[in-house]
Design brief:
There is one protein chain. It is rod-shaped, with a radius of gyration of 25 Å. The strands form two sheets. Strands 3, 4, 5, 6 and 7 form a five-stranded mixed beta sheet that branches. The protein folds into two domains: 79 residues, no CATH class; 121 residues. Strand 4 and strand 5 form a beta hairpin. The longest helix has 26 residues. The N and C termini lie far apart (78 Å). It is of the alpha+beta class. It is built from five helices and seven strands, in the order H-E-H-H-H-H-E-E-E-E-E-E. Helices cover 47% and strands 15% of the residues.
Length: 215
């Protein structure tokens, strides 16, 4: 019976265990970290069941406290999973958020470009606008230590020489001299957890371009 309880704990909390392993095997991952309560429930169930099995092999009965530990782990698992699976733990969901922020930044900058005849050339102005469109929130992407990556503007000298290892959430920016045109290259995260430039459905890198049109 208690073996069944332990198995139920493992099955119910498997998504958390799987996510924990994935976060440590990849440089980056998407979504909230594993829920500590559910990981604690798994640990408690496994420890309790191990003691029960060891005592059974030795021909002895385990103390009541170990059985209660397993039962408590099951209750904790059911309570912790009351709201279902955690959303947003896929690369696609993280990339969608990064894409939305990049598109909003592009939309605001196009309006400024057409109204003033030039886009800002300094990184600080772009970063300030980026903070506005992202509402000061970080990206959904996290490191192995579960630290959230911020949205960052990184200016490049040429759109033909983009850095290969810019972290997810970086918006690579090229501004033509005089601010008459610009390009934004958003960097997302691949399914394997590596930095990955967002792409069009056809596979081409996704680029937001703006140019001053006096007409």
């Amino acid at each position: 019976m208690f073996g069944g309880f332990t198995a139920l704990c493992l099955v119910a909390n498997w998504p958390e265990l799987e996510h924990l392993v994935r976060t440590q095997l990849q440089p980056f991952h998407a979504g909230p970290p594993p829920r500590p309560v559910l990981l604690l429930a798994v640990l408690a169930a496994v420890v309790g069941m191990t003691v029960v099995l060891v005592q059974a092999v030795r021909g002895r009965s385990a103390r009541l406290q170990w059985s209660l530990l397993i039962l408590g782990a099951l209750v904790l698992s059911l309570w912790g999973n009351r709201e279902g699976l955690v959303a947003g733990r896929t690369a696609d969901s993280a990339n969608l958020k990064i894409l939305q922020v990049a598109r909003e930044l592009h939309g605001r900058t196009v309006d400024t470009l057409q109204a003033r005849g030039a886009a800002p050339e300094d990184v600080d102005s772009w970063q300030a606008t980026l903070e506005q469109v992202s509402h000061g929130l970080p990206t959904p992407v996290r490191t192995r230590s579960f630290a959230s990556l911020p949205f960052v503007i990184q200016k490049v000298a040429s759109p033909d020489a983009l850095p290969a290892e810019a972290p997810p959430g970086t918006l690579l920016l090229y501004v033509m001299q005089g601010g008459v045109a610009y390009e934004i290259h958003p960097v997302g995260v691949s399914p394997s957890g590596k930095p990955w430039r967002l792409r069009e459905p056809g596979g081409e890198p996704l680029v937001f371009r703006g140019a001053f049109n006096p007409d």
